[in-house]
Amino acid sequence: MRRTGIVRRDRTEHLPGRLLKRAFFEAPPERVAPRLLGKILVCRSSVGLTVGRIVEVEAYLGPHNATPDRAAHSHRGPTPRNQVLFGPPGYAYVYSIYGRYFCMNFSCEKEGLGGGVLLRALEPVAGIEQMARRRGLQPGAPARDLTGGPGRLCQALGLNRETHNGLDLLDPDSPLQVRDDGFRVTRVLVTRRIGIRHAVELPLRFALPGNECVSGPKKMEAKWISLRPGVAAPGRSSHVAPDRLLR
DNA sequence: CTGTGGATTTGCT
DNA sequence: GCAAATCCACAGG
Question: Under a CB-based contact definition with an 8 Å cutoff, are residues A180 and A220 in contact?
Answer without folding.
Answer: no
